[in-house]
Amino acid sequence: MTRLDDIALFLRVLDLGSISAAARALDLSPAVASQRLKRLESGLGVRLLHRTTRRLHPTAEGRALAVGGRALVDDLDSLAAGLRESGGRGVAGTLRVTMSASFGRQHVSPLLPRFLARHPELRLSVHMSDQLVDLVREGFDLAIRIGELDDSRLVARPIAANERVLVASPDYLHRRGHPRVPADLADHACLLLVGSRGRQDHWPLLDRNGVRTEVAVSGRMESTLGEILRDAALAGEGIAMHSVWHVADDLRAGRLVRVLPGYAPPTTGIHAVMPERRLVPPRTRAFVDFLVEELGRSPPWVAAAEHVAAQKPG
Predict the structure, then answer these.
(1) Collapsed DSSP state (helix, strand, coil) of residue 8
(2) In this structure, what DSSP letter does residue 191 have?
(3) pLDDT tens digits for 202-229?
């Protein structure tokens, strides 16, 4: 157990970037933390960390220990949590979750107080970013991801469908006219998302028969954050591709309207994504079940999707 505790300390040092920060997080003195790290290196017979004046960096052996050791520590933590749960203590520990900033703020954040009320011994650490995060390296229990999944090291559970639409403000369409067919988008200002796969300047569209068309688009504005593009669309700056959940309220209120109603980007998914492991911590399992319960059966943006489907071409 002492060796595993030392590995857990080593992982915390990597996560936080310094021995003193890891010591504070684990309620240790920096001197004790340093002694334990030296003990771990001595016991393994390898150097794990390069120490510089500003930051600690793992050696090749340290990186290997971080990958394998995190799985060991996580499995022990999961086993202990499961035993506590079966002993009547319920879900406990700290759940570290990362999610899309826009989706998290709109649709997950309002649910969190209710989840915490169900599990009074649980602590929640929420990271929001539209940039892709390495769950294993950063030590997250799970992520909520939207769109296609690439990483084979991860296990995904679907939460809800992710329907997408093209939208613009009534003012923009009044000034520039309504596109009638996908090829017309080439003559319009399009608002481009820059994601993990680069600039999304080729928009795939399916007609009502499922026939796919891909259109090259361009415009004066691009961003890594969907909120920026939504704001620009509301201000009449162009046409944007958005998930229905993102613009549901705007569609209902008429601040945005659908462009090319006879065509839609392919539907993707909203998933809870977890590192592959033998034992899933009860806290992770409880949170995923909660999200499926709250968002999977009747997502709050479904009414907007029905409103969009009923719209006629402009």
Answers:
(1) helix
(2) E
(3) 999 999 999 999 999 999 999 988 899 9
